[in-house]
Design a protein that fits this description.
Distance between the termini: 23 Å
Number of helices: 18
Order of helices and strands: HHHHHHHHHHHHHHHHHH
Structural class: mainly alpha
Largest sheet: none
Number of strands: 0
Mean pLDDT: 82
Shape: globular
Helix content: over 70%
Length: 431
């Protein structure tokens, strides 16, 4: 396959995708800077996880409504409005910071409001991508999106740390606003998203019935629903461990060293980046479900179980890289299954139903993970006992060792669950 045929028919998507990288980079740098700022104020895992919870709950709560409206309304207008609200949120944080009035609770409220708008942005973006991309490129496009996400993960900590060091939080927020302006202008002036004509046939369907249509679709497709329920469980345990409290572990074990955290998060991004390049270039797998469950299990094995034993930066970076290398294969194949199995005129509602089910466990996992880290595992590993002495041989002692034990437990559970599903024949119908 030559380069021209590999990306043929993707011009508008590539323009949109490129501009969104710029915007996401600005947002990610702000998120990184705010995590560091919050940790310096409180110094607890739960203070960080609560910030994430406020960024997720509204998206989950309003997902059904947002998916229905995304199917009915103009996708481009929804995306533009959501981007504008995100920029206003960043501007509000900047104003509070410049006037020396910024408090942690301000960030919780602003993240909550922005998450509400993201509930609409998500399904609109899903459908817009489907409309802009030929079906034969679904896996490749998912790989490109994973590539951009990993590139942002690599660059955001490095750039965020550099800008924090030389310009402070103020400069990070200003850069974020400039990135938004670029992406907003490109979407407004240069991207034309095709209209969906089929949905007019159901224009008289009640709003409530339309909101529930995504759930009804998933109930009629049990294998698809089972995959979504599996990842609801995976998201729950993952947020209790590595993906939820990684910053607390690194900052705790390095006495708040944001450079070390930046290196580890960059390693996470590099792993995803390499995986994204590979999944974008190779031929799509015949059995997508086998790829999904195998890569999920390997990610837990490398990124949680083996990561939990490490105590120095180079090894943290290696296993962060290795644990995230398989994830683009998982994401690309799962997204391709969804785009293939769900009619385009229903994708907003079905994708929203999926997100509600799949992500509803994340806030619970984050909250529970933060509480267990601060009030159970960290205090336990700080108190001398026979079990503590035995665990400290594997996981070390001091701040962060209790979180390392949580990483290990989460990794074992996630790995076992993934490989059990790998052997289940019910998922073969999705291939």
């Amino acid at each position: 396959m030559n380069k021209s045929s590999m990306f043929s028919g993707l011009r508008d998507f590539l323009i949109l995708w490129s501009s969104q990288i710029v915007s996401r980079l600005g947002t990610a740098m702000t998120s990184f800077a705010l995590i560091v700022w919050v940790y310096t104020q409180k110094g607890t895992a739960s203070s960080i996880t609560l910030l994430s919870i406020c960024s997720l709950v509204p998206s989950i709560m309003f997902s059904f409504i947002a998916g229905t409206l995304a199917d009915r309304w103009d996708k481009k207008r929804i995306m533009l409005l959501s981007d504008m609200m995100a920029a206003l949120g960043t501007a509000a944080i900047l104003a509070l910071y410049l006037t020396n009035n910024l408090q942690i609770w301000h960030l919780y409220i602003i993240n909550f409001l922005l998450s509400f708008m993201n509930a609409f942005q998500g399904p609109a973006s899903y459908v817009a991508t489907t409309l802009l991309v030929p079906e034969e490129h679904y896996v490749r496009v998912s790989g490109l999106q994973a590539f951009s996400g990993s590139a942002v993960t690599i660059l955001a900590p490095a750039l965020g740390s550099a800008i924090l060091a030389f310009g402070g939080l103020k400069m990070v927020l200003i850069v974020d606003l400039a990135a938004f302006a670029i992406a907003f202008t490109i979407l407004l002036l240069y991207i034309k998203i095709p209209k969906i004509t089929a949905i007019t046939e159901k224009a008289k369907e009640s709003f409530l019935k339309s909101c529930l249509a995504g759930i009804h679709f998933l109930r009629e497709h049990s294998a698809l629903l089972r995959v979504i329920l599996f990842f609801a469980f995976i998201n729950f345990i993952a947020k209790m461990g590595s993906y939820g409290i990684l910053p607390a572990l690194i900052l705790g074990r390095t006495d708040g060293n944001q450079v070390s955290l930046g290196f580890v998060e960059a390693a996470v991004g590099i792993g995803t980046l390499v995986g994204s390049v590979v999944v974008t270039l190779i031929k799509p797998a015949k059995s997508r479900t086998r790829v999904i469950f195998f890569t999920c299990g390997m990610s837990f094995l490398l990124g949680d179980v083996l990561f939990s034993f490490q105590r120095i930066l180079p090894l943290w970076m290696f296993f962060a890289f290795a644990g995230n290398l398989p994830l683009p294969f998982l994401a690309a194949n799962l997204t391709a299954i969804m785009r293939t199995k769900v009619p385009v005129e229903m994708q907003g509602r079905v994708f929203s139903a999926r997100d509600t089910i799949q992500y509803s466990t994340i806030p619970i996992g984050l909250l529970l993970g933060g509480l267990l880290a601060d009030h159970v595992f960290e205090p336990f590993m700080a108190t001398i006992s026979p079990i503590q002495r035995a665990l400290s041989l594997a996981f070390g002692a001091g701040k962060g060792s209790g979180i390392a034990v949580m990483f290990f437990m989460v990794g074992v559970i996630g790995c076992m669950a993934s490989f059990i599903c790998l052997k289940n024949p019910i998922y073969k119908e999705l291939d």
